[in-house]
Design goal:
Bound molecules: 3-acetylpyridine adenine dinucleotide
Number of strands: 14
Radius of gyration: 19 Å
Number of domains: 2
Oligomer: single chain
Structural class: alpha/beta
CATH topology of the largest domain: L-2-Hydroxyisocaproate Dehydrogenase, Chain A, domain 2
Number of helices: 11
Distance between the termini: 30 Å
Shape: globular
Strand order of the largest sheet: 3-2-1-4-5-6
CATH architecture of the largest domain: Alpha-Beta Complex
CATH superfamily of the largest domain: Lactate dehydrogenase/glycoside hydrolase, family 4, C-terminal
Largest sheet: 6 strands, parallel
Order of helices and strands: EHEHHEEHEHEHEEEEEHHHEEEHH
C-alpha cells in the first residue's frame, strides 16, 4: 500500500515521538530531518527496527538534508528550542523565529503543495511567521496546541472524577499560553455540563492546572518539555488531514474576521480535511468568552509586532540563494 509522505523537521523529543506514532499507526512514510548530524538518521533507524515487532510497513528515514522533504503531503515543524525551568514560551520568540522562518521558506520551495503543522513555540506567533515566510494560503498552515490543551483538561477532569478521559468533552481556545481560554460551557460528560459534576472552585482549579500544565512538566522533567501528549496531538491532526476526515479540532489558525478577529493566529475550532483547514467553526460565545479570546489574541498580536521589529517576516535572501 502506498502511504502519504510526511516530513518531520526537528528530530528531538516531539519530532521523533511524532515520527514513531505516525509509523505505529500506519499513517505515513516518514522523513525525519534535523541539523544535528546522525540524530534523525539514528532515530529513524531505531523506529524502523521496531517495525517487525509492531507490524508496521511504512518507511522511516532520517537525514540532515532538507531536500528530502520534496513532495511531502504534510510537513510538521518541531525544530527549535524548548523551554527550560523558569522560562515562558514567549522567551523563545527570537531564537525560534530564526529557525522557523528559514524552514518555512524551504518548505515553500521544496514541498510547495504541502500542508504544514507547526509545533515550535511560541506557537501562535510561529504559525503566523510560517504563513508569512512560506507564502502559503492560511488553509495550509496551522498550529497544534488546542488539541493538547483540551486533552490535558480532559485528563485532569477524568482523574478527578475517576472516569475514562475519553468520556470528557471540552474545548480550549485562544493562545497556547497563560491566556488560553478553556470553555466551561463546552465542557461536559455524557451530555451533562461539567458544573453538574464539579463545583466552581474545582473547575477553576482544573482550568488553572491546564494553563500551567506545560510549566508543571518542565519543572518535573528538569530537562526539556512535554512530548508524548504533544506528539499525540500532532498525530491526531495529521490523521484528520491525511484521512480527509473533516474532523473538528481546536487548532491554531490565521483569522480573517472570524470571532471578530483579523490578521492574527489563535486557537479556534476548525474542520480539517485533505486540503488542510476546510473552515473555521464559529461557536456562539458569550460576551465574556469573546473578551477572553480577544485578550488572548492581543497578546499574540504584540509578539507578532515584536517579530516585525526584528524584521523576521522578511525573506532571508542568503538562505534563498543557498537552497539545496
Ligand atoms: P528538542 O528535543 O530540543 O528538539 C528540537 C530539535 O530541533 C533538536 O533536535 C534540534 O537539533 C532541532 N533543530 C534546531 N534547529 C533546527 C533546524 N534549523 N532544522 C532542523 N532541526 C533543527 O525540543 P522538543 O522536541 O521538546 O520541542 C520542540 C519545539 O516544540 C519547542 O519549541 C517546544 O517549545 C515546542 N513544543 C510545543 C508544544 C505545543 O503544544 C505547541 C508542545 C511541546 C513542545
Amino acid at each position: 500500500m502506498t502511504l502519504p509522505k510526511v516530513s518531520v523537521i526537528g528530530a528531538g523529543q516531539v519530532g521523533s515521538t511524532t515520527a514513531h506514532l505516525l509509523a505505529l499507526k500506519g499513517l505515513a512514510d516518514v522523513t525525519l530531518i534535523d541539523v544535528v548530524d546522525g540524530l534523525a538518521q539514528g532515530k529513524a533507524l531505531d523506529i524502523t527496527q521496531a517495525s517487525p515487532i509492531e507490524g508496521f510497513g511504512g518507511r522511516v528515514q532520517g537525514t540532515t538534508d532538507y531536500a528530502a522533504m520534496a513532495d511531502s503531503r504534510l510537513v510538521i515543524v518541531t525544530a527549535g528550542l524548548a523551554r527550560k525551568p523558569g522560562m515562558s514560551r514567549d522567551d523563545l520568540l527570537a531564537a525560534n523565529a530564526a529557525i522557523v522562518g528559514p524552514i518555512a521558506e524551504r518548505i515553500s520551495r521544496l514541498a510547495p503543495d504541502a500542508i504544514v503543522i507547526v509545533v515550535t513555540n511560541p506557537l501562535d506567533v510561529m504559525v503566523a511567521l510560517a504563513i508569512k515566510r512560506s507564502g502559503f494560503p492560511r488553509q495550509r498552515v496551522m498550529g497544534m496546541a488546542g488539541v493538547l490543551d483540551s486533552a490535558r483538561l480532559r485528563a485532569f477532569i477524568a482523574q478527578q472524577l475517576g472516569i475514562a478521559s475519553t468520556e470528557v468533552e471540552t474545548m480550549v481556545l485562544g493562545s497556547h499560553g497563560d491566556l488560553m481560554v478553556p470553555l466551561k460551557r463546552f465542557t461536559q460528560l455524557k451530555g451533562k455540563p461539567i458544573d453538574t459534576w464539579l463545583n466552581d472552585a474545582q473547575i477553576e482549579d482544573l482550568f488553572q492546572r491546564t494553563k500551567d500544565a506545560g510549566a508543571e512538566l518542565v519543572r518535573l522533567l528538569k530537562q526539556g518539555s512535554a512530548f508524548y501528549a504533544p506528539a499525540s496531538g500532532v498525530v491526531e491532526m495529521a490523521g484528520a488531514i491525511l484521512g480527509d476526515a473533516h474532523k473538528i479540532l481546536p487548532i491554531c489558525a490565521w483569522l480573517e474576521g472570524e470571532y471578530g478577529l483579523r490578521d492574527v493566529c489563535i486557537g479556534v475550532p476548525a474542520q480539517l480535511g485533505s486540503r488542510g483547514i476546510d473552515r473555521v467553526i464559529e461557536l456562539e460565545l458569550t460576551v465574556q468568552e469573546r473578551q477572553a479570546l480577544s485578550a488572548s489574541a492581543e497578546q499574540v498580536r504584540i509578539m507578532i509586532q515584536q517579530l516585525v521589529v526584528l524584521d523576521a517576516f522578511r525573506s532571508n535572501n542568503a538562505i534563498m540563494e543557498n537552497k539545496p
